[in-house]
Structure to design on (330 residues):
């Protein structure tokens, strides 16, 4: 079930995040975007187009009006986490364009205004609460001295976090397979420290046996926490350290009584669905100018995505989806 909370508290407070060059030259200057053609989670082809990429904020998603669009790239737009209910109106805003909602998913989030940790915790079923508590006990029992949670928010603490998370981040499956692990190069450290100086970052480490085995990285924008990076040591995957860390992080975040929401951003997943408390139907929408070149590209994307969906349905019927996912992550 898709749950949509009362959203007046967010409207008009957070502008749409833009990636690309604004102004009159955006048409020519928007950077190339690679649209991946994937089968079974593996990339089998790529299509490059000059698109203005827009990542909609939670405020944009919860608003009732169609978000305003800046000038497009030479080929069009890539609209991430666009409200599904607003897609029909997008045809009126972009008449004659080629529109393709490539991926539908719920935008999970937690409204934290006037809430507390206990209320969020009670949002889990009794069985899930028992399971989460048991995971924390098992993790503590595995190590002499149990585990500790380190909360990092000052510049010095964030430098420590980035150092501790560096080796761990490279080993996560997100980094190995998707290239989406926590960036820890010098530029990333500088950005993180600068955010900490503005009190715009919250980071957490789960430390056991003298080393970090899980991390959580949360930028803060307009008092909304953004779920950016969660990673853990694959050697301890059976103990769910990332899940344990997230629970303890929520306890500390609620205690600050500052934040208005926790935004899981675009994309779906079991963890987001379990830890979120509300969701809005969204989609990643590709909007292309109606050229022959773009028509051919869109046909290729539609064909590959359709084949992947049918293959997934057949695999689900045969009961082999879980095995395929394990094979992809190897």
């Amino acid at each position: 079930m898709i749950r949509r909370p009362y959203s007046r508290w967010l409207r008009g407070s957070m502008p749409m995040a833009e990636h690309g060059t604004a102004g009159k030259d955006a048409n020519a200057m928007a950077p190339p975007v690679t649209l991946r053609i994937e089968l079974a989670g593996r990339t089998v082809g790529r299509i490059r187009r000059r698109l203005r990429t827009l990542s909609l904020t939670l405020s944009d998603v919860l608003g009732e009006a169609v978000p305003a669009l800046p000038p497009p790239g030479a080929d069009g737009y890539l609209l991430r986490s666009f409200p599904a209910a607003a897609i029909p109106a997008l045809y009126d805003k972009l008449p004659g364009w080629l529109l393709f909602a490539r991926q539908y998913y719920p935008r999970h989030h937690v409204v934290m205004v006037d809430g507390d940790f206990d209320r969020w915790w009670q949002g889990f079923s009794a069985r899930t609460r028992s399971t989460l508590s048991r995971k924390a006990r098992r993790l503590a029992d595995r190590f002499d001295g149990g585990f500790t949670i380190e909360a990092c928010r000052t510049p010095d603490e964030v430098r420590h976090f980035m150092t501790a998370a560096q080796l761990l981040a490279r080993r996560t499956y997100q980094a190995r397979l998707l290239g989406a692990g926590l960036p820890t190069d010098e530029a990333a450290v500088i950005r993180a420290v600068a955010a900490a100086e503005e009190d715009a970052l919250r980071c957490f480490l789960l430390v056991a046996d003298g080393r970090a085995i899980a991390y959580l990285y949360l930028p803060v924008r307009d008092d909304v926490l953004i779920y950016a990076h969660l990673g853990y040591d694959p050697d301890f995957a059976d103990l769910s350290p990332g899940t344990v860390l997230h629970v303890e992080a929520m306890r500390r975040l609620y205690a600050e009584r500052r934040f208005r929401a926790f935004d899981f951003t675009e994309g779906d997943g079991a963890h987001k669905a379990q830890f979120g408390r509300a969701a809005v139907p969204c989609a990643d929408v590709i909007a292309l100018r109606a050229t022959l070149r773009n028509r051919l590209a869109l046909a290729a994307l539609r064909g590959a995505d359709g084949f992947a969906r049918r293959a997934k349905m057949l695999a689900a019927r045969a009961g082999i989806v879980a095995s395929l996912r394990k094979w992809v992550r190897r």
Summary: The chain has two domains: 17-106+279-328, 114-259.
